Amino acid sequence: MEEEISVVPIHKHREYLLECCKLINDEWKRSETARLRSLESSCDYLPTNLILLKDKIVIGHVKLSLIPSMKDACFVESVVIHKKLRGQGFGSLLMKETENYCQNHLHLNIIYLSTKGQEKFYEKLGYQECEPISLYGGYFPRNIPKSVNVNTSGPPAPPMPQNKFSLPQTQQKTYMCKLLNNNCA
Ligand code: ACO
Fold it and tell me: Is 76's C-beta closer than 6 angstroms to any atom of ligand 1?
C-alpha cells in the first residue's frame, strides 16, 4: 500500500497538537504547556506551524515566524524530523513543502533561519550564509547573500547591532537565507 505523505498547517488540524508537542519535546525539552501555547498560536499568517504527516502520524514540524522589519520574509525557528526517520529525505521534503507554502499561501519571497550544526543540510537545499538579522523590530535592510543580485530600495542600512563574530563562542549561529523566486532579481 502506498504511504500517504502531506504537509499541513497545525491550526487546521488541531487533533495533532499533542502529538506534535511530543515530537518537538523529544528533541528540545520544554514544558508541555509552553509548547502547546506556542503551537496554538499558529494562524493563517505568521506565526505558522506546519506538520509533516506520514500515514496520519506526525513525523515532522516546522515553525515559521514573523520578522517585523521584513514584510516579504519569514524566519524558520525550528525544524525537526522524528528521530527514527532521519536521513530518509523527510527533512528535505518538509523544507521544500514549507518553501511552497511560503510562496503560495504567505506570498513571501525570502526565508531566513539560523543554525548551529545543520549548515550542510540547509546548503543542500539551496540556503546561503548571510549576516545575522534582527527579529525584534526596527528597520533592517533585506539581508541576502552577496552572491545574489537583488534590487533593494529604501534608506541606507543602519549598522548591525551585533554579528556572529562579537558573540560568545557558545552562542555563535550561522544565519542563512534562500530567495524563493526570481522576481526579486
Ligand atoms: N550534516 C550534514 N549533512 C546532513 C545533515 C547534517 N547534520 N543532516 C542532513 N544532512 C544531509 C543528508 O545526508 C542528505 O544528503 P543527501 O541528499 O546527499 O543524501 C540531505 O542533508 C537531506 O537530508 P534529509 O534526510 O532530508 O534530512 P532529515 O530528514 O534527516 O532532516 C533534520 C534533517 C531536520 C536536520 C533532522 O536531522 C533533525 O530533525 N535534526 C534534529 C533537530 C535539528 O537539529 N533541527 C534543525 C535545527 S536548525 C533550525 O531549525 C532552523
Answer: yes
